[in-house]
Design goal:
The complex is a heterodimer.
Chain A: H1 4-25, H2 41-46, H3 51-62, H4 66-75, H5 82-98, H6 101-116, E1 119-121, E2 128-130, H7 134-155, H8 161-178, H9 189-198, H10 207-217, H11 224-239, H12 243-249, H13 259-277, H14 282-298
Antiparallel strand pairs in A: 1-2
Chain B: H1 8-11, H2 17-26, H3 31-43, H4 45-70, H5 75-82, H6 86-99, H7 105-116, H8 123-134, H9 138-141, E1 144-145, E2 151-153, E3 156-162, E4 168-174, H10 178-186, H11 189-197, H12 205-220, H13 222-236, E5 242-243, E6 256-260, H14 275-296, E7 298-300, E8 308-312, E9 315-318, E10 324-326, H15 329-344, H16 348-358, H17 369-376, E11 389-390, H18 393-403, H19 424-436, E12 440-441, H20 443-450, H21 461-472
Parallel strand pairs in B: 5-9
Antiparallel strand pairs in B: 1-3, 2-3, 3-4, 4-6, 7-10, 8-9, 11-12
The chains are: A mainly alpha, B alpha+beta.
Chain lengths: 299, 479
């Protein structure tokens, strides 16, 4: 992967490119409030400090579905361009949550088009897969929604049980946008939990998943200092994993995080957030969102 | 009448140690590149000073526009906005510039964004703080209360008011809950240490962290600021050119500080003033800094352009005493010895001993005294010889450059002891300011007036006026 310097540049690109993706996804002149809107829980959690932990935790859990993992492994260039891959995903997610309907639909249509070509056979289970398979799409969707709730709970502003339900129900439309029939999508936190436990016996840590996790937890080429801050995010994501995921990865149970460590992680997330805020356009984009939320609040 | 009240923090020092490292940890700056960037920016130190007031204005406009819409309405809003290290980053960033102007443009941008990202309190929330602090809602406490803040402070905002006895005042109101949040964040020493390590490579990071934590903690309690301001105002009472707004004690508390409202020209406006006016303003600032240090044993660690208001004829109002460092006689002694042996007695060896005694220079460093004088003497260049001298932007840059020159042979043996961390602002901030004014004076002669070990005769009309002022002061007030 080139010299250490290049890898360093890759990591820097992560902030810059995620920020650019975020900024582009927040419309300056929206035609409508999109599929969620300023009064939604979705908008509220989209700005939570814990988002990056939610994202990392989601990737770690999603990778445990062999067919989902095989699709990513065989069709995406995440190994060559992990930053680009992550930025593309975060761009998609924020366009769907914060963009107007047309933008969200365009982004979803594009993803569905790409998914058409993502088919193959998982070398581990020997099973064929297709990225457009609603079962796989639902898995990816459900894990992300659950990860967001868990990360908010541990490192951000926790959602009340009614707000968790609302959030799960709100997010159903995101699953539909990529092609999951509405009837399959969990509509409450309880249904979400049920769904997740129902698929557990399909999960396992394939070599591709182990690779992906190893990369995400300890991105190669990082020098000691990068590893240092990444360690906070990583510890947070691992601490947020369900026990069965820890078992599959062979991480062993890390035990509950001490309150002091949680505080430290939150502080590190705050520092990261400030860095993110320093990227061009991020503050304005956030203010656009905040203004619309305030207006909705008053109404 | 247009009232201008400029509050420190806000626009001024947007530097932040933290971000350099945060950024670097995310990968933008490798250690070596980071240092190169510091050196590069060191050259831009003066430019930065010039741009600071503009940044402040820009931030103010943004706030104005978003004021009502995004105002913080609850203590929870405050925690969301300034918790998780953000308030601390803002503060430390501000302070890091006292010891280190070597910040990359990216870091400066990040800090100014952070500053801009903090909306003011809603009128209700600010009123709530005043009520909690002083027992009555502001509309009852004051004859008139302007619910619209006129300026932002880093951890609060400033409102105009008129007291019941008719005095126009500035009321600084702290964000509720911020002190507790920041105090907790300041306990994360290891994160602070990581954040400061790269920015201040020539500093003893532990000393720096400890000192900055102490100063930030002090700043969280406005009573401390009021005490500082009273102390300094008391000393300068009746001074011909130095004016310190008076604190209204009965309208001040831990989270609210009320002082007399001042108006005057801002630093940026000085650009349009004739040079002799600029020289006089510079002379006043210079006298203020060193008199305060040698006679009040206090140094206002925040000499950034936003903290002055100018009235012509050299009269200057000094604002914001949130960051005042007090020195013990034992801490001042080596400083005086150094100045004395280098500038007055021309005793390089004694100068070197002074550096060692104060902890600036490792004893027994394998360097010739000549080399040491050669490299550290630049900080004394304005006062080593008598005669009129212009402090140019180039000189100010040279001082900053020298400060951050890690290739210098002395760099490995020099460090800044904790007590003097804030004093670096003289080298990095004051000279940048005077350079900005292209100020000319016989700095040495003025220094001699002030140096307790010389007590030279007045060298300028302002010096004459100071003699009269000192003579007129009650004995108890003299130092």
């Amino acid at each position: 992967m080139g010299s250490g310097t290049d890898q360093y540049a890759d990591a820097a690109g992560l902030v810059a490119r995620s920020a650019a993706a975020y900024v582009a996804s927040v419309p300056t002149d929206p035609a409508d409030d999109g599929f969620f809107g300023p009064a939604s829980v979705t908008w509220r959690v989209s700005g939570d400090l814990s988002s990056i932990v939610a994202g990392l935790r989601a990737l770690l859990v999603q990778a445990l579905h062999p067919l989902a993992m095989a699709g990513v492994d065989q069709h995406s260039d995440w190994r060559r361009d992990p930053v680009g891959r992550l930025a593309a995903t975060s761009s998609y997610l924020s366009t769907v949550s914060l963009g107007d309907r047309a933008a969200a639909e365009r982004a979803a249509a594009r993803v569905r088009r790409i998914h058409e070509h993502v088919r193959g056979t998982d070398p581990v289970t020997g099973r064929p897969y297709a990225a457009s398979d609603p079962a796989l799409l639902l898995w990816v969707h459900a894990v992300l929604v659950e990860s967001t709730i868990v990360a908010c709970e541990l490192f951000g502003t926790p959602l009340t049980p009614p707000d968790s339900d609302r959030y799960v129900a709100e997010m159903a439309v995101a699953a539909e946008l990529v092609g999951v029939p509405a009837a399959l999508v969990p509509a409450s936190a309880g249904e979400l939990r049920q769904y997740l436990s129902s698929v557990q016996n399909e999960l396992r840590c394939t070599p591709a998943a182990a690779d992906a996790a190893a990369f995400l937890l300890d991105p190669p080429g990082l020098d000691a200092d990068i590893a240092e801050i990444w360690q906070d995010v990583r510890d947070a994501a691992v601490a947020a994993l369900p026990e069965w995921a820890l078992d599959m990865y062979g991480f062993g149970a890390p035990g509950a995080l001490a309150p002091a460590r949680r505080t430290e992680i939150r502080q590190a997330l705050g520092v990261l957030d400030v860095v993110f805020l320093g990227e061009p356009g991020v503050l304005e984009a956030r203010q656009r969102i905040a203004l619309r939320m305030r207006t909705a609040q008053r109404a | 009448m247009r009232k201008t009240l400029v509050v420190a923090a806000a626009g001024g020092a947007l530097a932040a140690a933290g971000l350099v490292v945060a950024r670097r940890r995310l990968g933008k700056l490798r250690l070596r590149r980071g240092l190169a960037a510091l050196r590069l920016v060191a050259r831009g130190g003066v430019r930065y000073t010039r741009s600071a007031p503009r940044l402040f204005a820009a931030a103010g406009e943004t706030r104005e526009q978003l004021r009502n819409d995004l105002a913080l309405q609850t203590a929870q809003d405050v925690a969301d906005t300034l918790g998780a290290m953000k308030g601390v980053l803002m503060k430390i960033g501000q302070m890091a510039s006292y010891v280190d102007d070597g910040l990359s443009p990216a870091v400066r941008r990040t800090l100014s964004r952070l500053q801009d990202s903090v909306p003011p309190m809603s009128a209700e929330l600010a009123a709530q703080v005043v009520t909690q602090e002083l027992g009555l809602p502001p509309e009852r406490l004051f004859a008139r209360w302007d619910p619209e803040p006129i300026a932002a402070a880093s951890i609060g905002q400033v409102h105009r008011a008129i007291t019941r006895d008719g005095r126009a005042v500035a009321v600084k109101v702290q964000y509720p809950g911020i002190a507790e949040t920041m105090a907790a964040d300041l306990d994360n020493v290891s994160l602070l240490r990581r954040m400061l390590r790269v920015t201040a490579p020539s500093q003893d990071v532990d000393a720096l962290v400890t000192e900055l934590r102490d100063r930030v903690r002090e700043e969280l309690d406005y009573r401390r600021e009021a005490d500082n301001q009273r102390l300094v105002a008391g000393y300068y009472r009746g001074h011909p050119t130095i004016h310190i707004p008076q604190i209204i004690g009965e309208l001040s508390g831990r989270r609210v500080v009320t002082s007399e409202l001042s108006d005057g020209a801002r630093f940026a406006e000085l650009a349009g003033w004739p040079q002799h006016e600029r020289d006089l303003a510079a002379e006043t600032i210079y006298r203020f800094v060193f008199r305060s240090l040698y006679e009040v044993h206090a140094f206002n660690g925040d000499p950034h352009p936003g903290n002055y208001l100018f009235h012509g004829g050299g009269r200057v109002t000094f604002l914001d005493f949130g960051l005042v460092k007090h020195f013990t006689p034992a801490e001042l002694r080596p400083l005086m010895q150094m100045a004395r042996s280098l500038c007055v007695e021309n005793q390089p060896e004694a100068f070197r001993r002074g550096l060692e005694d104060a902890g600036f220079l490792r004893p027994g460093a394998p360097l010739s005294t000549e080399t040491i004088v050669d490299h550290l003497g630049v900080f004394y260049a304005t006062i080593r010889r008598p005669g009129r001298l212009t402090i140019t932007p180039d000189y100010a840059s040279a001082v900053v450059r020298r400060f951050f020159d890690l290739r210098s042979p002395v760099a490995a043996y020099v460090s800044i002891p904790r007590s003097y961390v804030i004093l670096q602002r003289i080298n990095l901030g004051l000279f940048a300011l005077l350079g900005e004014l292209s100020a000319t004076a016989d700095w040495r002669a003025i220094a001699e007036e002030i140096w307790p070990f010389v007590q030279g005769p007045p060298s300028t009309p302002m010096g004459e006026a100071e003699v009269a002022w000192r003579a007129s002061r009650p004995v108890a007030a003299r130092s």
